[in-house]
Amino acid sequence: MQDKDTILPIQLSFMLYPTVMATGFLVLPALGSLYAPYDFWMSSILTMIPGAITIVLATSLHARFPGLTIIESGQRIVGKVFGKLVGLLYFFYFLHFTGVISREYAEFVKSSFLFDTPMLFVSCSLLVLAACAVRGGVNVLSKSAVIFAILSSLPLLFLLLLIPDLNWTYMLPMLSQGVVPVLKAAAVPQGWVSELFLMTFFLPYVKDQKKAKQSSYAALGVIGISMMLINLVVLMLLGPDTSNKMYPVLVAFRYMSVGGFFENLEALLLAMWVLGNLVKQSVCLYATVITFSQCFGVSDFRSFAFPIAILAAVFGLWDLPNIAALHTLIQKVSVFETPLFTIVIPLLLLLIAWMTGRRGTNQGGVNG
Amino acid sequence: MVRRLIRASLLVPLIVMLTGCWDRNELNDLALVTALALDVGEDNQIDTTIQFLLPRSQSGVGGTGGGGGGSGTSRDTAVRHAQGSNIADALSKLQRRLPRKLFWGQCKIFIFGQGVAKKGVQESVDFLTRHPQPRERSYVFVSDGRAADTLELFPPLERSSAEVLRELSDMNIGFKLTLEQLSIKLISDSKAFAIPYIHILQKSKSAEPQQTIPYIYGTAIMKGDRMIGAMSEKVMRGMMWINNEVGEYTVSFGMKGSSDGLISLKPITAKIKLVPSISGDKWKMKVKAHVEGDMVQNETAYNPAQPTVLVEMDKAFEEAVRKRIELCLNQAQHQFNADIFDFAGVYHRKFPKLWEREKQNWDQRFPQVEVETEITAHIARSGLILAPGGMPKEEVME
């Protein structure tokens, strides 16, 4: 952490938005529709709660240990050995996570656009870019995120072009099965929103911590609104057919037609998919690389960017034999896996630190 | 500096990738499919017929500007067909008979032959919605007779018969159904729906043998995923009233007491509300309609400028709308027992708990639903003249 780089709070929110939205938004309505076919749009509100919790956790950990990421502060809280073990867990989790998102990215591109291109080529070409961004450091990451996040989220507004085709009666009957299905529908997206915890790796670079907190909440708010917009438009367009679609948002973009000539907008979707995923993958790869270097006490993280990117590509291929396994992972496993690393472990660490009264900075003290 | 140049030159290979990697497609390697027709082939196989665009330079009329003679129809499309055990199989066989790669991005028309529609469309819909190329916004039709025949027409206007069907659908005169809507209707509560039904227009005397168009006439009535019958144009109008889909359409009706002529209204605007109610074992549905129209022709001797006369006309208008709606309801409930109005969905939304218990009985329930119509109809404007045009003053009835 010898960088003199700094991040503006606003840049933080531009990094966090694609980190949560970039891969998930494409399948979001289908996952909710499985459980609450008429009410899943309400789940977007519920998913904000775990998001807010992770922001609180990340910022209060950082307030106790200013200038330290969770990997470093973990070593201060539970001792060096256990701290490194926790760090190793995080490393494997982030590596696996980066692999999965690069697989998700490549899977969509291959199944809907580039049918004949080898999947490994698709996933690696973006990972190489992400690794370049990581080598560039926080400055490159944050500045590119601002441009790419804007470019990748604006096409969402095109969903409004579908208004003439929407049928609001698909929202009825409302809550006919009670609120339990809505809670179930919120299960998967809450995992995605809690990925906001990745901000722990960027908080040390933000000067004004209070503003950092505010801009994370702002990112969370925009994420909630975007999820609601996507859910509502897709629900009113596809109704009961939503749950059977692999990529409901792709269908929505293909369905757009304005005046009979403004059509085939899925190319736009692909463009935002690539840009959004670039930010997401570089943020995740950065987290993986930093975790690795802090865990093993290596001062220069840059040289690990490419090797770990290769590992991530391999993880993406080997973890998941087919699309059904990917679906099970998203629907059943990551629901618990993500909050374990983004809420449960940080909460435990924070509790231990609070009880033992440990605090610290990266100046002096134990050498991380 | 040199290092920089070397580094920058590393970017050059990237240009190679910008061409689309392994998926590069050249336009002159593609056959642009405009429509797909599905028929029953020999041995219960499926017979797929595609219509594809011929490049301008090959269609024969290319460079000759404007003038030209009436000798020989200009043909912008050609058809080809192949049989297989399912659509995917048949299309792969078809590809073997076509030197260019099938490209579905421009295909906006899917036509089920009557035979296929009667056997069930679900398997076909699976292919069309699963395959990543066919577009969800394409229109679907059922054809009277073989679907392939509608593709072998060369319309005098428009480039292809597929284009004719698309334009006709976009005009909002009849009703239209997209592939995605079909996919939704197949899993809807009512398990019944309608698909636009197309016929081949009889060619005019001077036209050449295949120089005519397919056009939409009435609907095919589907139950489950099978076609069980067809409704005529007139009856279909009643369905469009109830489903609130009245588009560009002229209503003509006679006046009570005067047998000599009709009043025609266009355009019509309608607001329809379906109000379901359940009392005991009686399921009722109230169709509330608020209709307005502008007069375009008045063959009667009545003067619509007179308030008292206009009230009478409104009543006749109301009666005309009611008759159309009831005619259609009667056929749907008693002849076909097919809930093409999605009353099932209306009950489901209003009584979700009860519906969960009763939904398996819907087939017996639907014919017994008591439908009540409550219609208010107004003639809003009478056009540019008041009393019947060209009629001497003393003959006009006030």
UniProtKB/TrEMBL annotation, chain A:
From the Swiss-Prot or TrEMBL record, state where the protein is found: Membrane
Entry membrane topology: Multi-pass membrane protein
- UniProt superkingdom: Bacteria
A Gene Ontology annotation in the biological process aspect, one of them, is: spore germination
GO CC terms on record?
membrane
Q: Which keywords annotate this record?
A: Germination, Membrane, Transmembrane, Transmembrane helix, Transport
Which sequence ranges are marked TM in the entry?
12-34, 40-61, 81-101, 113-133, 145-163, 183-205, 217-238, 301-318, 338-357
Please state which protein family the record places this protein in. Answer: Belongs to the amino acid-polyamine-organocation (APC) superfamily. Spore germination protein (SGP) (TC 2.A.3.9) family.
- Please state what the protein is called: Spore germination protein KB
UniProtKB/TrEMBL annotation, chain B:
Domain Spore germination GerAC-like C-terminal: where? Answer: 218-383
Location of the protein in the cell: Membrane
One GO CC annotation, please?
A: membrane
Q: Which residues form the Spore germination protein N-terminal domain?
A: 23-200
Top-level taxon: Bacteria
Q: How does it sit in the membrane?
A: Lipid-anchor
Instruction: Could you list this entry's UniProt keywords, alphabetically sorted.
Output: Germination, Lipoprotein, Membrane, Palmitate, Signal
From the record, give the transmembrane residue ranges: none
Please provide the Gene Ontology terms (biological process) for this protein: spore germination
Query: Which Pfam family is an annotated match for this chain, by its short name?
Result: Spore_GerAC
Which protein family is named in the record? Belongs to the GerABKC lipoprotein family.
Concerning NCBIfam families, the annotation shows: spore_ger_x_C
Q: What is this protein called?
A: Spore germination protein KC
